[in-house]
Amino acid sequence: MSSIKELARRCGVSVATVSRVFNTPEIVSPGTRRHVLDMAAEVGYLPNESARTLATKKSNMVGLVWDTDHRRPGWRHPFLQDILVALKSALSAQGLHLLMLAPDRSAGPDSRQRFLRAVQRHSVDGVVIIDNGSRDPAVLALVDAEVPCVALDLRFTGPTCTSITSDNAGGGRLAAQHLIDRGHHRIATITGPPDTWPAAERLAGFRAALTEAGRTLADADIASGDWYLDSGYAAMKRLLPRSPTAVFAAGDEMAVGAMRAIHEAGLRIPADIAIIGFDDIEVAALVPPGLTTVAQDKTGIGTAAAEAIVAMLLGSPAPAEPTTLPTALITRGST
C-alpha cells in the first residue's frame, strides 16, 4: 500500500493522526500509535522518506565519516568494526540510519566547500567521525558549519561538536603496573602513530607509571607503529637488540605482529619476553599464548557516540569535555 489516506481509512483515524505517528509519535497516545503501526505492518505501508524530510526538515540520517580508501587499512581494523556494529545498533533503536560519507581529499581551496555541500545534499541531521582520516580540512568544514558532530578518539571542540574516547592514559598505567608487578625492569613499548590522541595518551600513562616506580624508558626503548600487524612486527625487530624482558604494544594487532617477531627470534613468550596489548579484539584470546591486554569498551564507545548525537539532535548542547570510558586489564598467558 502506498496511500496514507487508505491506511487512515483502515485504521479509522485521520490522515493527520497517521502522519503524527510516523513524524511526531511522542504526541500520539500509545494505543493509537500501536494500532496504526500494526495496521501499517499488516498492509505493508511505508512512509515516504523524501516527503517526511521535506515536511520535518529532518532526514533521520546520520552521516558516518570513516576513511575507507582502499589504500588505507582503516576499514578493516576489528576494533573499529566492533564500534561500528554498536553504533549502528544504537542508532537503529532510535529510528536513525547511517550513511557513509567520504572526505573530499582533492587538493585546492574548494575541497572544504565541496564536501560540505555533499553533506548538505544528503540532508544528514548529524555526523559521527571515526578513524584517522578525519582530520582532513574538508571534514573540519563540518565543525565550522556547526553540523552536530561526534568524533571518536579525535579532539573536536565547538558548540555542536564533542568527542568520545577511552581512558587511554589510565590504560597505559594499567599495562605498566602489570609489568612492574611481574618484576620486569627492561621494559620497551610499541606506540601507535605519535600524532594521534590515543597513542600519545597511552604512552604518557605508561611512562608516568614506570617513572613513579623508579623504572626508566629510554628513547631507544620506544618504537612506533601504525596500529596494524606489520608495523608491530617491524617495531619488535627494532627492539629485540635492546633485550627487553617485557613489551607493551599500544594496540592488539601490533602486539600480535610483535609476537611473530619474538617467535621467529627463537624466544619464548612470556619466559623470555612478556607482551601486553591494548584493545582486547577477538584475536587476543586466540593467539598462543593468549594475549594479556587492556580492554576498551567497544560496545560502550559506539553506544555513547549514538547517545551523544541523539542528544544533540534533540537540542542538548554538545558536552565541552570528552566522554571518557574506563579501560580494564585482561590477564592471559603472554605475561
Automatic annotation (TrEMBL):
Annotated Pfam families: LacI, Peripla_BP_3
SUPFAM superfamilies in the record: lambda repressor-like DNA-binding domains, Periplasmic binding protein-like I
Keyword Methyltransferase in annotation: no
PROSITE patterns: HTH_LACI_2
Entry keyword Repressor: yes
InterPro entries: HTH_LacI (IPR000843), LacI/GalR-like_sensor (IPR046335), Lambda_DNA-bd_dom_sf (IPR010982), Peripla_BP_I (IPR028082)
Residues in HTH lacI-type domain copies: 2-56
Entry keyword set: DNA-binding, Repressor, Transcription, Transcription regulation
SMART domains per UniProt: HTH_LACI
Gene3D superfamilies (alphabetical): 3.40.50.2300, lambda repressor-like DNA-binding domains (1.10.260.40)
Taxonomy, superkingdom: Bacteria
Entries under CDD domains matching the protein: HTH_LacI, PBP1_LacI_sugar_binding-like
GO molecular function, one term: DNA-binding transcription factor activity
PANTHER family hit by this protein: HTH-TYPE TRANSCRIPTIONAL REPRESSOR PURR-RELATED, LACI-RELATED TRANSCRIPTIONAL REPRESSOR
Protein name: LacI family transcriptional regulator
Organism: Winogradskya consettensis
